[in-house]
Design goal:
The protein has 350 residues and is an alpha/beta fold. The protein contains 13 helices and ten strands. Helix 2 runs antiparallel to helix 3, helix 3 packs antiparallel against helix 5 and helix 4 packs antiparallel against helix 5.
């Protein structure tokens, strides 16, 4: 990371603005950001860096205008520092409102009773392509860094079960802590998922695959999601021969959790991947309920069809007998409702 004086000296010597890795990442992020939240997060990261070097930048600006330092000479240190703090406060206030809204959306999704899957992986590994294949969507796909800087969630059906699938921002090596903090609200979608689908580009050289895989697993740990089950989707096998895929799989199988070689672009082995997802999240509970038929329970039955996998329903003696499967906490919620309606509840073996 360049200090202001280093950037200043380089700019003075070359006649062009000098930027470091952090600033380069910010520039790429800025071009890729499409949502209000992503743009605000980038601004926040940029301003927090400015705040750390405000005094030094003002001093250098007063020495004479150089590329990348124009316009600062009119500011005193205190005024410049105060202005940045004001902007940071404004952005944080806006982000707080967005995060409250995000939390409400998350709670709404939880109420649906469906397990959630988060797509994670190194930038440009093919997460959005896999998202499109699984969700039958058209999220932006590009052969460039950081195509996705915000999250998208869709309801997907995998082997007759409903899941919530979320596409998230890509990881990179040595991502500055400031950027991790700035994008934490976006990354935290991964923390609240039931399964992480880690996408890895297997078409790259082995040493690159190892490094990027290690970066992804380390980032997952840094954001507090290490306890969540992981399936590794080894993407882009269409660019390799079967022999090359087999060799690479043998080398990385011990470091890649539950590896499944796929091609998101052509749909190769997606059925195999879906089976692995289903097996990992197959903690469904089967139950049978009997409820009296009235306007309230009819509304409940309609809701049950949307939020659980209803296997059978029979009507007799002004009652409904229903057999269904759902995740454990949702079954408990149904049990509470049925008992309140003076119905019958019975857990069955799946």
């Amino acid at each position: 990371m360049l200090k202001p004086v280093q950037a200043y000296n380089l700019a003075k010597a070359t006649g062009v603005e000098a930027i470091d890795r952090f600033q380069l990442i910010l520039e790429i992020f800025t071009k890729r950001a499409t949502t209000t939240e992503a743009k605000l997060q980038i601004q926040l990261a940029r301003l927090r860096r400015e705040l750390a070097y405000a005094k030094e930048k003002v001093r250098l600006a007063k020495m004479g205008e150089q590329p990348g330092f124009m316009g600062l000479g009119a500011y005193e240190v205190e005024v410049y520092h105060r202005e940045i703090k004001r902007q940071v406060h404004t952005i944080r206030r806006k982000l707080k409102k967005i995060r409250i809204k995000r939390q409400l959306h998350r709670e709404g999704r939880i109420e649906l009773g469906f397990p959630s899957i988060s797509l994670a992986g190194y930038t440009n590994a093919g997460k959005s392509s896999l998202f499109n294949s699984l969700a039958d969507e058209e999220a932006p796909v590009d052969n460039a860094l950081f195509t996705t800087l915000s999250t998208t969630t869709r309801l997907v059906k995998i082997l007759k079960r409903n899941f919530l699938l979320t596409d998230t921002v890509g990881f990179i090596d040595r991502l500055p802590l400031t950027l991790i903090e700035a994008f934490h609200s976006t990354l935290e979608e991964t923390i609240y998922s039931d399964l992480i689908l880690l996408v890895v580009d297997i078409s790259e050289p082995l040493e690159v695959i190892r490094r990027k895989l290690a970066v992804c697993l380390e980032t997952i740990e840094r954001i507090g999601a290490s306890g969540i089950p992981i399936i590794t989707a080894l993407n882009k096998i269409d660019l390799l021969s079967e022999e090359e895929v087999h060799k690479k799989l043998e080398v990385i199988k011990d470091s890649a959790p539950k590896p499944v070689p796929i091609s998101a672009l052509y749909g190769t082995n997606l059925v195999l991947l879906k089976k692995e997802i289903f097996k990992t999240l197959n903690n469904y509970v089967q139950a049978a309920i009997t409820v009296p038929l009235n306007s309230e329970t009819m509304s409940f039955i309609s809701s049950l069809f949307k939020k659980a996998y209803v296997q059978s329903i029979k009507y007799a003696n002004n009652e409904a007998y229903i057999v269904f499967e759902a995740i454990p906490w949702f079954v408990e919620k149904v049990q509470s409702y049925v008992e309140k309606m003076e119905g019958k509840f019975e857990k069955l073996q799946v």
